[in-house]
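Shipment paperwork, digital attachment
Item: protein structure file
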Amino acid sequence: MTELVYALVQAVHNLGAVAVVASPAVALGFRDRGGAVGRRLAWALLFAWGLQAASGAGFAAASYGFKGQIPEIEGIALAALVVKLAATASGFALAAGLLWLRRLSSRRSRTLAWGICLGLAVAALTAAAPLRWYL
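Attachment content:
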């Protein structure tokens, strides 16, 4: 049962990871179209970052539920977790900002915002590798 729960949480986390990278990548590819496509992608990105946060918390909840404690991490793993948490919070906030600011002042501003979103996604996924290695 334990392995099934961890596998399900990991599957959800992986799907969220795909979406946090794909949404800004597609938005950058379709940047000339803007409008409705950009809003849909911003909603997808907001949902994906929320999914990342929830499934990340799911790992901790599963560990606590099955083992009675969350994993102790230090050093590189702790730094990786901090990067993932910061990227997730920043990505979620930026995605919300893309929705709240219906029209960024210029195409250049939109491109910059989507580029930062993509950078945050890559940072979070890159930090996942050492975190997985040490846990």
